[in-house]
């Protein structure tokens, strides 16, 4: 899951760790994103609880889990929360938006908002015209899905999307942050990655600017390893030292594959089987 901090104009934010609210239950370990409380600049406290779930694959129990999180927020704060699901999967028909049940004298119909990133395939022109950084995030996500097993095409799109950051006139820190995201998501085989890096260096030289250094790129791969390791620990528990070293020895392509596969892991044996199959 991605941690989400929502900003509100004219307010200050107070962030509550959702992991303090959600406990283990029959559905298995549950992890959720950040919960944000805001204050007006005048100092008046208002409650705007927004629960955001980012879901990368279809899941039969997802709607029930959305209800469970919302209920636990209400149980903790005695105030309602807005629940929003960002669906990043590849299934056009999977669109959960409610959880309901009916029993004698008792019924429930819980609805939540959804954003299906796949729908933006038909709104590409709108994304290109936007200077909102999240438009770039959606573009990267869609092109990463579309270029699976198409490495040359992915290399072309990776360069195009990064060049777009400069053309938008973003500040250096924003270019660095979005570059880090693109580099993490749009992983290339090492040979193509070397070609891309050479093309990118030439591009920066032509623009007489250099924002991304070789040292930073090495740091990005270390960051990718650390992120995958943290996600694995949340999915299957503490990792033995020898397993950690094996994950750290994976190539960029293998890290990408493991990052997708770990969404289905429930115990450490799942990880061990994956590692044996990819040696």
List the helices and strands and how they pair.
Elements: E1 11-16, E2 35-40, E3 45-46, E4 49-55, H1 62-77, E5 81-87, E6 98-103, E7 106-111, E8 113-116, H2 124-129, H3 133-146, H4 151-167, H5 172-185, H6 190-206, H7 214-236, H8 241-248, H9 252-261, H10 268-277
Parallel strand pairs: 4-5, 5-8
Antiparallel strand pairs: 1-2, 2-3, 6-7
Helix pairs in contact: 3-4, 3-5, 4-5, 4-6, 7-9
Task: Explain this structure.
The chain has two domains: 11-117, no CATH class; 130-219, no CATH class. A three-stranded antiparallel β-sheet has the order 1-2-3, with no helix packed on it. Strands 4-5-8 form a three-stranded parallel β-sheet, with helices on one face. It has a two-stranded antiparallel sheet with strand order 6-7. The protein is globular. The chain has helices spanning 62-77, 124-129, 133-146, 151-167, 172-185, 190-206, 214-236, 241-248, 252-261, 268-277; strands at 11-16, 35-40, 45-46, 49-55, 81-87, 98-103, 106-111, 113-116. It contains ten helices and eight strands.
Helix count from the secondary structure assignment: 10
Q: What is the gyration radius calculated from CA atoms? A: 21 Å
- Regions with pLDDT < 50 over 5+ consecutive residues? 1-32
Following the backbone from N to C, one meets helices and strands in this order, namely EEEEHEEEEHHHHHHHHH
Largest sheet: 3 strands, antiparallel
- Overall mean pLDDT score? 80
Pfam family, one: DUF4351
Protein name: DUF4351 domain-containing protein
Domain DUF4351: 219-275
InterPro entries: DUF4351
């Amino acid at each position: 899951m991605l941690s989400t901090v929502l900003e509100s104009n004219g307010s200050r934010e107070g962030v509550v760790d959702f992991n303090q609210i959600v406990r283990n239950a029959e559905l298995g370990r549950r992890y959720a994103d950040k919960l944000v409380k805001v204050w007006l600049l005048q100092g008046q406290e208002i409650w705007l609880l927004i629960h955001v779930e980012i879901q990368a694959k279809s899941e039969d129990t997802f709607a029930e889990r959305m209800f469970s999180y919302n209920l636990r927020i209400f149980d903790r704060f005695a105030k309602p929360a807005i629940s929003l699901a960002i669906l990043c999967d590849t299934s056009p028909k999977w669109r959960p938006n409610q959880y309901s049940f009916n029993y004698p004298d008792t019924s429930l119909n819980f609805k939540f908002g959804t954003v299906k990133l796949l729908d933006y395939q038909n709104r590409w022109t709108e994304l290109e015209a936007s200077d909102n950084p999240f438009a770039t995030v959606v573009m990267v996500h869609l092109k990463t899905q579309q270029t699976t097993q198409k490495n040359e095409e992915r290399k072309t799109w990776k360069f195009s999307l990064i060049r777009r950051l400069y053309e938008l006139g973003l500040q250096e820190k924003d270019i660095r942050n979005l570059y880090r995201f693109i580099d993490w998501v749009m992983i290339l085989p090492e040979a193509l990655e070397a070609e891309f890096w050479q093309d990118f260096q030439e591009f920066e030289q032509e623009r007489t600017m250099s924002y991304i250094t070789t040292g930073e790129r090495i740091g990005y791969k270390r960051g990718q390893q650390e992120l995958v390791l943290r996600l694995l620990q949340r999915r299957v528990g503490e990792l033995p030292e020898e397993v950690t070293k094996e994950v750290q020895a994976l190539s960029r392509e293998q890290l990408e594959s493991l990052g997708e596969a770990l969404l289905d892991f429930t115990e450490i044996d799942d990880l061990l089987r994956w590692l044996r199959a990819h040696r």
